[in-house]
Amino acid sequence: MNKAEMGQPPQLTFGDVRRRTGGEIAGVTVSVALEGLSAHREVYLYSSADLREFFSGLATDWRGWSGIRTYESIEGELLLEARHTGSHVELSFTLQDPSFHDEWCVRGKVTLDAGEELSRASEDIQALFTARQ
Hints:
- By secondary structure, the chain is α+β, with helices and mostly antiparallel strands.
- It has helices at 49-60, 116-130; strands at residues 3-6, 11-19, 25-34, 37-44, 68-72, 78-84, 88-96, 105-113.
């Protein structure tokens, strides 16, 4: 697995995992596609565990939760907010340059079916970060 895609435009894609010399995850490229706009940014990860646990938790609780669940990358380049709406999960994203967030920031939202589509997204994230490239 070399990428994990979620949604159809709007779309959120994780790919191009970079590893340190010892094989540890160093980062991932996150791409977004909105109507008339596409952007990508390298997102640095201290570990991929937090991101994998975020998606795993969403899939485990596919029947619903209250409030908003959030994920933020270590340097703030990627912010995710998940809200369960009953039969769907709205996954809002912010991709930005944390040093210039007032100048370079893309926001959007993908809507995933709370069952199969959410499970597939979680499985793809798990596979992306566990595959040796």
